[in-house]
Design brief:
The complex is a heterodimer of chains A (65) and B (261).
Chain A: E1 2-5, E2 8-11, H1 17-23, E3 32-35, E4 38-40, E5 55-63
Parallel strand pairs in A: 1-5
Antiparallel strand pairs in A: 1-2, 3-4, 3-5
Chain B: E1 2-3, E2 6-7, E3 12-15, H1 22-32, E4 36-43, H2 50-61, E5 64-67, H3 75-89, E6 93-96, H4 109-121, E7 125-130, H5 134-142, E8 147-150, H6 164-173, E9 178-182, H7 188-196, E10 201-204, H8 206-209, H9 214-234, H10 257-260
Parallel strand pairs in B: 3-4, 3-10, 4-5, 6-7, 7-8, 8-9, 9-10
Antiparallel strand pairs in B: 1-2
Helix pairs in contact in B: 1-2, 1-9, 3-4, 4-5, 7-9
Classes of the chains: A mainly beta (65), B alpha/beta (261).
């Protein structure tokens, strides 16, 4: 199915947030995830389904002022 | 200085952006003596590891992080970014920025107050980046902010304090709020200036990161903040319009001798 990941359309096989994090090679990384603008706690990644057309944000720390 | 329920010794907070290399950033933060650094969060490309690499350096420094909402232009974006920051960094602290103007990066103070109120209700400890407007700061305090961070001048401009009277009024009217001057400080003398006005601390980034040699500049700012604070606690003399001799006049040699000739 196609979802938007960080603003870009992407064909994915994942059906949960945990799957998607793994599929995008962020497993074990220091990332946070929002699904359709709402934060998905790390503990809930495995039980949070992803559906066609969802918008996912995956963020990490960066330099800031 | 008290930041919500946490007590910190260093009154200098520094940013982590604009450094020529991670090694220079790390050395400059160490030289600054800062216990708190600001960070942002950004989208990570699939398979990307830039965030992890940066985070390892920050963790190794052993400092507290103050995540920001830099780049947010709406209340919604700022609130969502704050929620992601809380999840990522596991802290209730958020440096709240709602930018209203791209040229000056002036805060949208109306949106800022609304976002601060929402986030405070949701358990955040908000550090709002704001202008020196007395009423706006009053609204932020009403919204539950116990730390407020007015600008000295626009972000990255290095102009120092533009509205001295405004900042002095804020300090006088909000003696119990932790007030930190954030943005626009270009020189250690500017930081000392803010501290002499009685501000609890200063937050800066560009002036250190963009110095020819950031590490000694970080040390210079640390010294200036300490000097300014010590001066404030020691009670500065007031300025006056006329001269007043510091050396005693009584007993001046040849007093009136010349007049007798």
């Amino acid at each position: 199915m196609v979802v938007r990941v960080n603003g870009e359309p992407r064909e994915i096989a994942a059906v949960t947030v945990a799957d998607l994090v793994r599929e995008l090679d962020h497993e074990g990384g220091f990332v946070a995830v929002a699904l359709n603008t709402r934060v998905v706690r790390r503990a809930a990644w495995g039980e949070t389904p992803i559906r066609e057309g969802d918008a996912v944000e995956i963020v990490t720390p960066r330099q800031g002022g | 200085m008290k930041l919500y329920d946490q007590e910190v010794a260093s009154r200098l907070l520094v940013g982590t952006a604009l450094y020529s290399s991670p090694a220079v950033m790390k050395a400059a933060i160490e030289a600054s003596g800062a216990e708190i650094v600001t960070v942002s969060l950004r989208r990570e490309a699939a398979g990307g590891a830039a965030g992890d690499a940066f985070w390892r350096i920050i963790r190794a420094l052993g400092v507290k992080v103050l995540p920001n909402t830099a780049g947010c232009r709406t209340v919604e974006d700022a609130v969502r970014t704050a929620e992601l920051a809380r999840e990522l960094f596991d802290t209730p602290w958020i440096k709240l920025e709602v930018i209203g103007d791209d040229e000056t990066l002036q805060p949208d103070v109306v949106g800022l107050v609304e976002a601060a109120a929402r986030l405070t209700r949701d358990g955040f400890e908000v550090f709002p980046y704001c202008t020196e407007d007395l009423s706006v700061v009053g609204r932020l305090v009403e919204a539950g902010c116990r730390v407020v961070m007015p600008w000295a001048s626009p972000i990255g401009s290095g102009q120092g304090i533009v509205n001295r009277a405004g900042l002095r009024t804020l300090r006088a009217r909000f003696p119990d709020v932790t007030l930190i001057v954030d943005a626009g400080l270009g020189a250690p003398s500017h930081a000392a200036d803010a501290m002499e006005l009685g501000y609890d601390g200063v937050l800066l980034n560009t002036a250190i990161a963009r110095a020819d040699d950031p590490v000694p500049m970080a040390r210079a700012f640390a010294l200036a903040v300490e000097a300014g604070r010590l001066a404030h606690e020691s009670g500065l003399m007031g300025a006056r319009d006329f001269a007043s001799p510091s050396t005693p006049v009584v007993g001046t040699p040849f007093w009136h001798v010349g007049a007798a000739e």
